[in-house]
Amino acid sequence: MNIDYTIGEVELSYKPNFRSLHKATCSEDAYRYLLSTYREGTICYKEYFKVLFLNQANQILGYTLISEGGITETCADVRVILQAALLTNSVAIILAHNHPSGNLKPSKQDMEITKQVKDAAQLMRIKVLDHLIISDAGYYSLADEGLL
Prior knowledge:
This is JAB domain-containing protein. InterPro entries: MPN, RadC_JAB, UPF0758, UPF0758_CS. Residues 23-148 form the MPN domain. The protein has helices at residues 27-35, 78-87, 108-123; strands spanning 22-23, 48-54, 59-68, 92-98, 127-135, 138-141. It is an alpha+beta fold. Strands 1-3-2-4-5-6 form a six-stranded mixed beta sheet, sandwiched between helices. Strand 5 (127-135) and strand 6 (138-141) form a beta hairpin. It starts with 21 loop residues before the first strand and ends in a 7-residue tail after the last strand.
């Protein structure tokens, strides 16, 4: 009996750009950096869930697109968010997603995913600093509104 014991290789990568780390000192800073990650005309097209990764000094290590969905929703997986945070050696993260409608009010689902990520991240000693709901005209910060 010939058994093939070949298994797939797991390869994870992160390519930091330490020459130009920017600080996120407030929700407006985070909004500005996140807004720049959208190609022109896409923020009103469909939902995108993104995460900013920060070091101890609140410098932005990078960002990633967690999911992209339809007009009214996108599905963010807590495990994928934390995997990326661990890979980047982040001590803090800022969650963000856009509402194509322009309505910045958080939904029940927005509040649920925020709590799920916050609870899971706490186990890893990673702090969720904020969850921003963004549009091309402005943003809503759960932290600024005391909802984090």
